[in-house]
What we know:
single chain, about 220 residues, mainly beta, 2 helices, 14 strands
Amino acid sequence: MKTSRIAAGIALLALVLTACAGPQPQAEPVSVAPAPAEAPAPSATPIPKAAVAGIANERGQVVQEIGETGVLVTDGYDAPPTMTFKVTSIEPVTCDAPDAPTPQGTAVAVALEIVTSPTFSGPLEVKGQPGMISFRPHYWKGYASNGAQMNTVESSIEHSCLTDRTKLLPDYFGKDRKLNGMVILDVTAPIGEVAWIPNGIGGWAWEYPGEEPRD
Length: 215
């Protein structure tokens, strides 16, 4: 298992753009609207510079392998990690909930293990509570094997696919958490990549397996 160390400021990510393209304008953290369906709006809070180590793809995303650990530091460049996370599997899933809607493409379960320290502080503010982070489909993008970006990987299967919804990660969480759960994405290509982009810039990318349709 390889470990990729990503040291970031409180908003995670001017990410690989900083490492690959030199100094970039600093991104702004996100303020999340109370309604779950609404997209988060930018906050005016300035973001510290991000220092990044890792192999980046052409989209400025750190390339991760299944089982590889990403490390996030929010207490300063030389501080211990405040969040570790890894994708342990990415597999197609059959929705078994009685009220499950039909996916637009293929329902894919991304299983993650996540640990945040007591001093972790994420880039999101949720219902007036700062220091949060999210792995909801809203913060993911999908790419077909030819590199074409999917319009979205977010759909109504997010919460309605599985009968046992305790398998899902919480929508938002903050410091001092140890989580083992999954997020359900709705991908429109049989094979490709998915990327978690929690602050709109850079991110982490994983290939997902599958089979191309036969003629």
